[in-house]
Amino acid sequence: MAASLTRSERLVLIRTVLSLLENWSANDDEARAVLNLPLATYAEWRRNKASNVTPDRVYRLTLLLQIHAALRMRFSDAKRAAGWMSRPNDTFTGRTPLALIADGELASIERLLAYLTADLSPW
């Protein structure tokens, strides 16, 4: 999939997710952990360079966008949606959703997305 994205599209995807992480109040260490990036790649992404955008990373970025969309469906107010990521949640053993996904595991991001979309399903 990464190969099918143009350089411009990769940059937009990266910038959008980095902005999203900032809105969720993720610091650089948390953002890097969520993205599961080495420091050098994270630094390049922060400098608007679309380097090392592998299909796995595109998938991870896409999941984060889906989390954002699910939050916006749940909360009409953007600040409440972003703030939810920093509030402790009993479902995640008292951790915040941001802390959950900052463990760097793809499964944690998938778990959060599943949690958010479960009650949005019409079935």
In which range does the helix fraction lie?
55-70%
- Percent of residues in beta strands: under 5%
Chain oligomer state: single chain
**Low-confidence parts, pLDDT < 50 over ≥5 residues?**
none
Q: What does the model show?
A:
There is one protein chain. By secondary structure, the protein is mainly alpha-helical. The chain is built from seven helices and no strands. It has helices at residues 7-23, 28-35, 39-46, 55-74, 78-84, 97-101, 106-118. The relative contact order is 0.14. The mean pLDDT is 93.
Task: Summarize the entry for a quick read.
Helices cover 63% and strands 0% of the residues. It has seven helices and no strands.
Describe the SSE topology.
Elements: H1 7-23, H2 28-35, H3 39-46, H4 55-74, H5 78-84, H6 97-101, H7 106-118
Helix pairs in contact: 1-4, 4-5, 4-7
Notable characteristics:
single chain, mainly alpha
